[in-house]
Amino acid sequence: MIFAPGTQNPFRHLLAVVVLVGSLLAPGCATVPRVAESRPVLKADLTPVAVELSPREAWHRAEAYAQAHPGSKVMVGRGGSMLPQYEDRTILVVQAMEQSELRQGMTVVFFGDSGRQVAHTLLAPSPRGWVAMGMGNAEPDRTPVRYGNYVGTVIGAFRPRTDLADQESPVVAINGERLAVID
User: How far is it, in rounded angstroms, from Cα 162 to Cα 4?
Assistant: First the structure.
């Protein structure tokens, strides 16, 4: 089809819409905020900071915290994808939430790119689900977080430290909430 100069090409607008939708559905979704075309901006303000305790006390507190939050479970992180937030062997308390409750900055456990459970931070929603990324990773995960692969959200974290004595304070604050440990 030939268009005379100065007339509108009706297919130009259609092409612009196709390009826009394609960029939103592409891996690495266009809605993921980036800094100077390097790595995505990772905001983790809704991710609990790990409380450093002796190994025995870390397990004790994680189990007590999970017991105080019905429906939650204790898991142990492995690897360095969440450094510096969570070191290898950080004990995590994870609780399932409704998908509508998920927010940017939360760290969630889901079945990731390799088919194994991973704990990564939510970057941004996309048409395919939530885009997530490990804090220590350079790129977002290819597998989005959605209903079928979501396990739960990290609500508490405890970092076992062998250099700490087992004589810890009986009360700990997690996300501003005081939790009494029951012996």
Answer: 78
Q: For residue 38, name the pLDDT band (cuts at 50, 70, 90).
A: low
Nearest residue to 150 via CA among 122, 107, 102, 108: 108
CATH architecture observed for domain 42-180? Ribbon (2.10)
Spell out the domain ranges in the chain: 42-180
* Contact criterion met (CB below 8 Å) for 155 and 95: yes
- What does residue 23 show for φ and ψ, rounded to 5 degrees? -70, -30
Tokens 């004990």 belong to which residue? 91
The answer to whether 165 and 65 have CB atoms below 8 angstroms apart is no
Q: Which residue bears the tokens 């397990």?
A: 59
Considering only CA atoms, give the Rg of the chain: 21
Omega before 127 within 30 of 0, i.e. cis: no
Strand partners, 107: 121
Nearest to 151, CA basis, from 104, 179, 115, 126: 115
Residue reference for tokens 């009986």:
170
- Residue 2, pLDDT score: 33
Instruction: Name which of 127, 131, 128, 136 is nearest 87 in CA terms.
Output: 136
